[in-house]
Every structure is written in C-alpha cells, then in structure tokens.
Amino acid sequence: MSTKDKTILSDEKLVEGILSNDEQIIRYFFFRVCTPLFDYIIKNIFNDNVEKDELINEFYLYLRENEWYKVRQFNYRSKLTTWTQVVAIRFFQKKRNRMIEKQNETTLYMKEGYDPQEKVISRMDIERMLSEMSNKRYQEIIYSLFIEDTAPKELAEKLGITVDNLYNMKRRAMWQLAQLIGKEGRNV
Questions:
Q1: Under 8 Å CB-to-CB from 120, ≥6 apart: which residues?
Q2: pLDDT, tens digit, 9 for 90 and up, residues 114-165
Q3: Cβ(89)–Cβ(41) under 8 Å?
Q4: How many CA atoms lie within 13 A of 64 on its CB side?
Q5: Which residues in the chain come in under a pLDDT of 50?
Q6: In a 10 Å sphere around its CB, with 0-12 CB exposed, 13-18 middle and 19+ buried, how is residue 29 labelled?
Q7: CB atoms within 10 A of CB 43
Q8: Residues 6+ apart with CB under 8 A from 79
Q9: CA 165 – CA 171 distance, rounded (Å)
Q10: How far is CA 108 from the centre of its chain?
C-alpha cells in the first residue's frame, strides 16, 4: 500500500489496521498522522525536553496494552485524530505530573552526617540552579519551602495566594527546576 493510498483511509480502516497489527498502518498512523500531535506535546507539555521517537514509543506501548484495549474504546463519535489527541494529551499530562510528583519526593535537604564542606558546596549548587530559573516567583517558592523551611501557610500569606495555589505553583516550580537539572545533566 503506497503512502497516497493510506491518506484516503477512513477511520474505520485505520482502526481495523491497528487492531490487526498491520505494521504499515501502525507506522503510518504513529509517524505520519500523529506527527503534529507529538510536536504539540513536545512543545507544550514537555517544553521541548523530550525526543519525538521516545513519545511515539511510549504512546504506542500505552495504546498497545491489553491487545489495543484503548483503541477498542474508540466509538467513532469523533474523528480518530481528535480522539487520539485527547487520549495522548491526557496520557502525557499525567506522565508529566507523575514526573513532577517524583521530583517533589526528592527533597533538597542534606542529611546530617555529611562533611560540612560538602554541605556548603551542595547548597551553592542548589542556589546556582535556583538562580538559573526563569520564573523568579518559582525560585522564591522553592527557596522558601526547601531551604528556609517556611511553612506553606506562611509563604502563601506572604505571596498573597491560597495554600492550594501555592502547591500548584510549587509543582510547576519543581518541574522547571527538574528541567534545568536535566539540561545540566546532559551538558556534563
């Protein structure tokens, strides 16, 4: 089947090909039809910090689980591309949020018993990374919560926001910091 023939495939034929594990249709769907979607996700969900092939692979494996269970849920009430956009964006937003939560579990505190010189160097590294953050308010939130050990309620009052909003901002701040740390790790 040529590329020209594939462009006229209906949603029914695409789904049928995917469910029957037709390698050509699967490759066409993920690498051609979904390309604008993956470009959007890379830019808007992951701030250009992931590779397209990595996203395609993860999304393929996600849809492939349980013999294409998710694809079998497609009910043709919308276009396949619209349905795929919703499923993919939700999947990758949850993935990003799990990554952020995982970062929140890793605190910036240094355990007692470390060499004092090591503590100073570590603190300098942390402060340097914070200074590189583009959003100064995020920088202040992380510094206050993790370095100064400010109570969330106290910090929220200081910033003039609710505690719930502070937690949302902290999550985004940790995401931004994780991106900086990841970039630095790749540059080493």
A1: none
A2: 455 555 555 666 777 788 888 888 888 888 888 888 899 998 888 888 888 8
A3: yes
A4: 11
A5: 1-5, 106-114, 188
A6: buried
A7: 10
A8: 11
A9: 10
A10: 21
pTM for this entry: 0.53
Q: Which residues contact 134 (CB under 8 A, 6 or more apart)?
A: 176
Q: Which helix (H) or strand (E) holds 141?
A: helix 136-142
Write out the two tokens for 37: 């979607």
Beta-carbon contacts of residue 116 (< 8 Å; ≥ 6 apart): none
Please check whether residue 167 is in contact with residue 152, taking contact to mean a CB–CB distance below 8 angstroms: yes
Tokens of 52: 């397209």
Angular region, 107: left φ>0, alpha ψ -120 to 50, beta rest: beta
